[in-house]
Known about the structure:
The protein is an alpha/beta fold. Helices cover 23% and strands 38% of the residues. It has seven helices and eleven strands. Strands 7-6-5-8-9-11-10 form a seven-stranded mixed beta sheet, sandwiched between helices. Strand 8, helix 6 (175-182) and strand 9 form a beta-alpha-beta unit. Helix 1 packs parallel to helix 2 and helix 6 (175-182) packs across helix 7. The longest helix is centred in the first third of the chain and has 12 residues, at 50-61. The radius of gyration is 17 Å and the shape is globular.
Amino acid sequence: MSLMYEELDFRPTPIGDLMLRRRRLIQLGGLDIYEVKLGEYFLMTSLFHEAEVQLSKLGLGGLDKKDLDVVVGGLGLGYTAVSALEDKRVTSLVVVEYLEGVIEWHQNGLVPLGKVLTGDPRCRLVHADFFALSRDVSKSFDPEYPANKHDAILLDIDHTPTNVLHQTNTRFYTEEGLEELAQHLKPGGVFGLWADGFPEESFTDLLAMVFESAESHTIEFDNPLTGGSSEGAVYVARVSL
């Protein structure tokens, strides 16, 4: 294949064909970018990751304590997880990923941040269904410590609460689903959510019904392809102490 384009992995999954590809953009000085597709969905690019980084910074930034036990739902290209590990208070990070291929990309060094995550002893990549684990309030997200609760749970899987990758995910974004998630948090713990585009006021209101407090943030970042800017959303909700 040409150095301008390379398909690094392609495999079928229960929810669609998964592809990892690398492209070199001449208009950006020959920058290599990594892109993930699932079926017809364009999931992620390494060109835009500011909102994913801010998910960790805003979620963990509101916690006034040490020795944080953190869960990230959705591995992707690793930006949310790496940002979490940059917070030195994090002593345990469990990243829950449904697609085994995505975990293998990191383990095999196919994506730029793979060695950062697999080389950090605080971090473990777990092949599991985040939404199924959230629904089971009898256990934690950490298979090694099933009795644990967590200081922060940061989720980056679906496009938005109303535009999901699979219809079975929709239940999570209801009052019942969020109440189950909240039971996995320690007192004062935080739930953070990434979404594409601007925040949805109706979802912020729903979070406020379930959690002690809830807020949304618009993350603007430069788009070098258009010469303008694009937006992502980060929601942050906290359970009571």
